[in-house]
Amino acid sequence: MAFTMTTTQAREFLSEGTRTGQLATTRQDGRPHVVPIWFVVDGGDDDDLGDLVFMTGAATAKGKALQRDPRVALNVDLPAPPYGFVLVEGTVELSTDLDVMLPYSIEIARRYMGDDQAEAFGRRNAVEGELLVRLRPGKVTALGAISE
Q: 51: burial class by Cβ within 10 Å (0-12, 13-18, 19+)?
């Protein structure tokens, strides 16, 4: 039977494996823009989901949208039975500080590329022209076992 996830369950769901998020932003002309992202969860406890941290190029459609309007939605799902999802709506904070960016870039690379490629991949991405994005959750909707 479907259930609403606790904050801890939602954080664990977001952190499991290599699930990709689908980030929704708004283009300058008002059209929606949805793209996949790699991310990590930073912080959190039983009462706090933590922040979702990812990176993007400042000159991309996504980067431009984030610089113009910090409001976003990020959906992460389990696309197989028993199905589930966590939808995070909130605002982002952006940083171009490479010293702050590098450890997160390596952590994201470790999650999606593995330990053996984390350092090289992380250093390749933590460069001028990239944005470190910190999504601070406002509203979270998290459902598990939808098909049971």
A: buried
